Amino acid sequence: GCSRQEGRAGRVASPLAVLRAKQYKCESLEILEAFFLTLAGATVASIWGDIFHHPDDETVLDDTLACVRWMYRQMEYGCQKYPGFFTHHSLSFMQQDTADGKRRMHHAWQHILDQLCVVLKRDPRVRPDAFTDQFSAEQFAEVLFSLVLSAVIRQDFDPSAALEITRRTLY
């Protein structure tokens, strides 16, 4: 049978009351967990926004090489200002089973990729035949962003290899 538990003031709580209290506690914990994950996701997105805020020098938005240099500087800045952010929070968010965290991370990264595509298409020095149906500006932006993320993991913020790849590919 059902065991009866003592409630407040020595009264015996009914099994239904005990079950409701347990459900309430469980629901409360789920609400707190969802709130925390939403807050954590918003914090991660905010940090990405701080790292890749609109550049003070707008000329980096018209020159791919200048933009790549700026991205590497910003990632170095992010590692200094937010130690452990990339390894402990940002990259692990992609592996967690939190849809909101993944959505926010994807949104932040997509914004960076979109802006990089704008720069690639705006850069007057890019050869007219640099991009094709088989190799688009979007694909090259993904390659460049992958190189930047790899630099963060290695903690090596020298953009020279990415700059040389860009020169050989685009100009």
Description:
- With 171 residues, the chain is an all-alpha fold.
- 68% of the residues lie in helices and 2% in strands.
- The chain is built from 6 helices and 2 strands, in the order ββαααααα.
- The chain has a two-stranded antiparallel ribbon.
- A hairpin with a 5-residue loop joins strand 1 (5-6) and strand 2 (12-13).
- Helix 1 (15-51) crosses helix 2, helix 2 (64-81) runs antiparallel to helix 6 (160-170) and helix 4 (99-122) packs across helix 5 (137-154).
Cα-to-Cα separation, first versus last residue: 80 Å
Radius of gyration: 25 Å
Strand runs, count: 2
Q: Enumerate the spans where pLDDT stays under 50 for 5 or more consecutive residues.
A: none
Outline, from the CA principal axes? elongated
Biggest β-sheet strands, sense, barrel: 2 strands, antiparallel
Q: What count of helical segments does DSSP give?
A: 6
What would the average pLDDT be, to the nearest integer? 78
Structural class: mainly alpha
